[in-house]
Amino acid sequence: MTRHVYVLNGPNLNLLGEREPGVYxxxxxxxxxxxxxxxxxxxxxxxxxxxxxxxxELVDWxxxxxxxxxxxxxxxxxxxxTSVALHDAVRALACPVIEVHLSNIHARESFRHQSYISPxxxxxICGFGAxxxxxxxxxxxxxxxxxxx
Length: 149
Ligand code: DQA
What we know:
- This protein has helices at residues 21-24, 29-43, 55-68, 84-91, 131-148, and strands at 3-9, 45-51, 71-75, 97-101, 123-126.
- It is of the alpha/beta class.
- The chain has a five-stranded parallel beta sheet, with helices on both faces.
- α3 runs parallel beside α4 (84-91).
- The termini are close together.
- It binds 1,3,4-trihydroxy-5-OXO-cyclohexanecarboxylic acid.
- 1,3,4-trihydroxy-5-OXO-cyclohexanecarboxylic acid (DQA) is lined by residues 12, 75, 77-78, 80, 101-103, 105, 112.
- Residues 12, 75, 77-78, 80, 101-103, 105, 112 line the site of 1,3,4-trihydroxy-5-OXO-cyclohexanecarboxylic acid.
């Protein structure tokens, strides 16, 4: 059974590759997108891969996922640590959400230790760089496989 999932990216992730490569790695967002497409194919998933710098647009996409997606992988970037609106949008989703961060947010500044998303996510992957997105898709596929049975 092919399932459709959203892979959503928050602010400044369009700058991956240029922005603090020591923290976030050298891969660009479009190279991560290609890897996600290849991974999704092996898992029987189709994906919508998107990035925005705007909080409200992320909220709109999460609401859209209620109708169009079986699950969501999201890197909310800086909004992870600030956004009650994203928390509420994810809370209103019936489908599973996997929170992904390239860096290990717990090993960084204390303001990054709190996530408004983690309490409403099915799980969190952080610290594995770009590979975290593939791990997130794997995790989502295994959750969805359980609901097929
Ligand atoms: C990030 C971690 C956030 O703290 C930061 O604001 C980001 C990226 C990550 O992927 O490691 O923009 O979500």
